[in-house]
Every structure is written in structure tokens, then in C-alpha cells.
Amino acid sequence: xxxxxxxxxxxxxxxxxxxxxxxxxxxxxxxxxxxxxxxxxxxxxxxxxxxxxxxxxxxxxxxxxxxxxxxxxxxxxxxxxxxxxxxxxxxxxxxxxxxxxxxxxxxxxxxxxxxxxxxxxxxxxxxxxxxxxxxxxxxxxxxxxxxxxxxxxxxxxxxxxxxxxxxxxxxxxxxxxxxxxxxxxxxxxxxxxxxxxxxxxxxxxxxxxxxxxxxxxxxxxxxxxxxxxxxxxxxxxxxxxxxxxxxxxxxxxxxxxx
Length: 258
Ligand code: CAA
Fold this sequence. Notes:
This protein is α/β, with parallel strands linked by helices.
């Protein structure tokens, strides 16, 4: 499928999605969110994809937020619908993806852009990246899950500081407070992400998917994560990956989960 706002490249079981609106610092308009939804669903449906990677086109930004020009005249109802639609079509989809998702933050990750990165499972930021949730400076609050995911990632005190000051932090500061997993030089980004992806690829896709589900259960209101873990642990025993993984151990060879 041909997209207008994103570029999709599939290579060695990795589904690389580049948000491609560099003249708007890759701001997320409705059309881009719909295209991302389609692409991520496509990746999920393929039996060969082992990792979904998101990044931004151009030199300056990962994503500089929701498209302010698009929502500037919205009513209360339209505002709520924007947040609801975006969260359901994109942000929840990424967080609940059975395939690991990685955000390569290659510049500004602001507002909806940082929220997009936070919905991914792993975040790597280049040293020049600037991150923040500046929504209150516009008279709104983060609407793509930012108040929730930031709090989970960095704790309530830091989340309140980051959101109420609307200030940008460097990649190093983001690493120090647990907001990103790694920082690296721009030229090291692809080697570092490849290293992580290669490790993921050696492991059981079926177990990885259940591990993600179980970890997410820890943060789901009204759900007992320990109970989910017990159930999913049991389910692993009926998978082909479990047979392969344990047989490989007994036969003193590397497992082949492909
Ligand atoms: N929405 C729409 N357009 C945006 C944008 C955004 N979030 N961010 C940048 N752009 C556009 C600019 O309007 C500009 O377009 P024009 O040339 O047509 O004017 C172009 O991208 C380049 O941007 P700048 O000229 O501003 O670049 P800069 O280097 O001077 O500044 C920046 C960079 C500091 C990131 C600045 O662009 C900026 O502050 N952007 C807005 C960041 C922001 O507030 N994000 C939160 C959005 S609200 C949100 O995300 C709500 C939610 O949670 C759902």
C-alpha cells in the first residue's frame, strides 16, 4: 500500500515505519494516525515480523506533537474525540502489540511525539534529541496517554514536574529519569537498535508476546497481573516454541524459532 505521510520498509523481519512530514516536524495529523494504524496492523498480521520500529524523517524531529494547526478550532467534543480516536487507533495498539515496538527518537519528541515514543516498548534517543510534554503551554493537557504513561515510567513526582513546567529535557536527562532506555550518537543509532533487535530475534515470538501481555497487565486497572502471569505461563506449555526452546536446551544447541 502507498502511504502519503509515512514510509514503510520491511527488512530482515523488521518493519521500519518513518513518519514523513519533515516540513511539519512530523506532527501527527489525523491522516498520519490512520496510516500508522494501517501499517501497524499490517505488521501484526504478518507471521514474519519480529520487531516494529518507528522513527521520524529529516534532521530535526522524531515527532513534534499532535498537529496543532489541525485541532486549533476544535470544540470540547471534538477535542475528546481526537484523544479517544488517537489513543485507540495508535497509542494503545502500539502498547498492546504482540510484536516488540521500538521508538528511535532522532530529534524533537514533544507532546504527542513523546506520547508515541512512550507507547512503544523500548526507546532509544540520539544525544541531540529534546523531549517534553509542552501541552499546558498551549492550554491543553497531554491527550494521547501522556499523563498515564509518563507517570508509569518516571513516577508521579517527576511526571508532575515535566508536565506542569512544560520544559524540554535532553536525551541524557530523559535517560537519567528512566524515560528512555538508551542514548547514543546519531551515527550509532542503527547499530544499537540492530543489536537489540537481534537479541529479540533469537527468542521465542510466542513467549515474547505473552511476556508483553503480562507486563502490561501490571499497569491495567482492575486486573491482577500475577493471575495473568500464571495463566500465560501455563499457556506457554502448549506452544511450539516451548517444545523447540526446551528441546534445544536438552540437545545443547541453539533454538530455532523461525
Ligand atoms: N503541529 C503543527 N505544526 C508543527 C508542529 C505541531 N506540533 N510542530 C512544528 N510544526 C511546524 C511549524 O508550524 C513550522 O511550520 P511552518 O514552517 O509552516 O510555520 C514547521 O513545523 C517547523 O517548525 P518551527 O519553525 O517551529 O521549527 P523550530 O526549529 O523553530 O522549533 C519546535 C521547533 C520547538 C519543536 C517548535 O516547532 C514547537 O514548539 N512545536 C510545537 C511543539 C508542541 O507544542 N507540541 C505539542 C503539540 S499538542 C499535543 O501533542 C496534544 C496531545 O497530546 C494530543
